[in-house]
Amino acid sequence: MWPRKTWDLLASLPYRYPNHPVYQTNSCALAHVLQRPDTHRIRDTPTCCANHCLTNQRERCAATTHPPVTAENIHSHLTWLGMPAIPAIDFDAQQRTATAQGALSLRDRNNVSQRFVITVRAPRAGDERYWSGRLQGGPLVIDS
User: Fold this and answer.
1) Residue of 144, 75, 141 whose CA lies nearest to 112
2) Maximum distance among all alpha carbons in the chain?
3) What pLDDT, on the 0 to 100 scale, is given for residue 137?
4) CA-CA distance, 60 to 43, in Å (whole number)?
5) In degrees, to the nearest 5, what angle opens at C-alpha 132 toward C-alphas 128 and 137?
6) How far is CA 36 from the centre of its chain?
7) In whole angstroms, what is the distance from residue 42 CA to residue 25 CA?
8) How many Å apart are CA 132 and CA 122, to the nearest integer?
9) How many CB atoms lie within 10 A of CB 83?
10) Per-residue pLDDT of the chain (144 residues; tens, 9 = 90+)
């Protein structure tokens, strides 16, 4: 969540400091600092375009291949995590996106996403207390 003036300032920073990376996502900033590729499927998305990565980071992300995964792998991992009632999982291997046909906690969605380097979509768990940020869409900009 961003106040409009701050959001506008952030949008101007890459132009003011063109040789400095500016990220909208924590995962991309961490990937840069740790000198590893993005593992949250940000690459080639509108968010990726909004991030201002250095050339070597974009090359690092582009050169990455991700491990194969199946719906059965995801189901087994959720069982291992201790999910009491595992929702059905539809997995699109081409897009590397899993869609749960039932609620998952943000913690479990992030765990599966990180483990398999996939996008996980699921209805929000009823007792979830955290906003999932970019998992739910773009930033919230507030005019004040």
Assistant:
1) 75
2) 51
3) 56
4) 11
5) 135
6) 15
7) 9
8) 11
9) 16
10) 778 898 888 888 889 998 999 988 888 899 999 999 987 778 888 788 888 999 999 999 999 888 899 999 999 999 999 887 777 899 999 888 899 988 888 888 888 988 898 888 888 777 776 655 555 556 667 887
Q: Cβ(71)–Cβ(98) under 8 Å? A: yes
Which amino acid appears at position 79 of this protein?
T
Q: Are 116 and 91 in contact (CB under 8 A)?
A: no
DSSP conformation letters of the chain:
-EEHHHHHHHHHHHHHSTTS-B-S-HHHHHHHHHT---SSS-TTSHHHHHSB--HHHHHHHHT-------HHHHHHHHHHHT-SSPPPEEEETTTTEEEESS-B-HHHHHHHHHHHT-EEE-PBPTT--S--GGGGSS--EE--
Q: Are 85 and 69 in contact (CB under 8 A)?
A: no
What is the residue whose two structure tokens read 């081409």? 94
